[in-house]
Specification:
Elements (H helix, E strand, L loop, with lengths): L2 H14 L7 H8 L3 H12 L3 H5 L4 H10 L3 H7 L6 E3 L2 E7 L2 H6 L5 E9 L2 E8 L2 E7 L10 H6 L4 E4 L1 H11 L10 E5 L3 H10 L8 E2 H7 L6 H9 L12 E2 L12 H14 L2
Parallel strand pairs: 2-7, 3-6, 8-9
Antiparallel strand pairs: 1-2, 3-4, 4-5
Helix pairs in contact: 1-2, 1-13, 2-3, 11-12
Length: about 280
């Protein structure tokens, strides 16, 4: 069992029992580690103690953050932030493929890809000269094959596996808060509406969340909550475009393609980094 899998198991249990006074002994038992070893692992992974971390998983905390985020997107759009966004202090530039590039399906395009371990489990990542075009969390059993989403998006591209460079990319992406940040360029297949939604998501600060309705209102389509949800689900570079920061109006954290526990783990770690 990997470190993330142990943490995910604890988060899954804590989500179901967060109203109970969970002890460190109980949490260590869920991780199948001794108390001291579990405490060290968790603190190393999250930067806070297990007890401090748990408070970020409560529905009350999610609702508070949701209320605080009510004007975040409106403000950022009002001041004309239409280009690069910020993702946990990384500068992100987002470009969409041209109609011609979409029509060709990647013909003549060279794409490198690979798998690497991250804070939140195994991921697959791919990039071309234009930028990162794929990011997804994966199961360990899929490591022998090219990610199906990548093949679907760019069926005629030339693919080359490069796990070493994937690991180097992930070190840039999952950099610790105290480390220097480097800019990233994303290159994606998208409709104009999807690009508009994804650009808005890049403006949600780390440690904050917004509802689908808030995002819809911020982009000038207040009745488009479902379409915003669909755009989040179609995000080809999950985590880099932070669709995990969008939750239901009620504060419920669910509906993540890689599982609610992983979404909660990401949000909790982001919140912990901001404290």
């Amino acid at each position: 069992m990997t470190d993330y899998e142990r943490v995910e198991r604890v988060i899954r249990y804590a989500t179901e029992h967060y109203r109970e006074q969970l002890s460190l002994t109980e949490l260590a038992g869920i991780s199948e580690l001794s108390i001291s070893r579990f405490h060290r692992l968790f603190h190393s992974w999250a930067g806070v103690t297990p007890k401090q971390f748990l408070k970020f998983l409560t529905a009350a905390d999610a609702r508070i953050r949701l209320r605080k985020s009510a004007s975040v997107l409106d403000t950022s759009l009002d001041v004309g932030l239409s280009g690069p966004g910020r993702l946990h202090d990384l500068l992100i530039t987002l470009d969409g493929a041209t109609p011609g590039e979409l029509k060709r399906g990647g013909a003549g395009l060279k794409i490198e890809w690979g798998y690497a371990e991250t804070f939140f489990g195994l991921c697959s990542l791919a990039w071309s000269q234009r930028g990162i075009c794929h990011f997804a969390f994966s199961d360990t059993g899929t490591m022998d094959s090219t990610p199906p989403e990548l093949l679907s998006d760019w069926p005629h591209a030339e693919f080359r596996r490069n796990d070493a460079k994937t690991s180097a990319w992930c070190k840039r992406i999952f950099v610790e808060p105290s480390m220097p940040k480097q800019p990233l360029r994303l290159w994606v297949r998208a409709t104009k509406f999807q690009l508009k939604v994804w650009q808005a998501l890049l403006r949600i600060p780390e440690g904050r969340v917004c509802s689908y309705g808030q995002v819809a209102r911020a982009i000038g389509n207040p009745r488009a909550s479902r379409a915003v949800g669909a755009a989040c689900g179609a995000n080809p570079v999950g985590y880099l475009i932070p669709c995990h920061r969008v939750i239901r109006e009620t504060g419920v954290v669910e509906g993540y393609r890689w599982g609610a526990p992983r979404k909660q783990a990401i949000l909790a770690k982001e919140a912990a980094n901001g404290t």
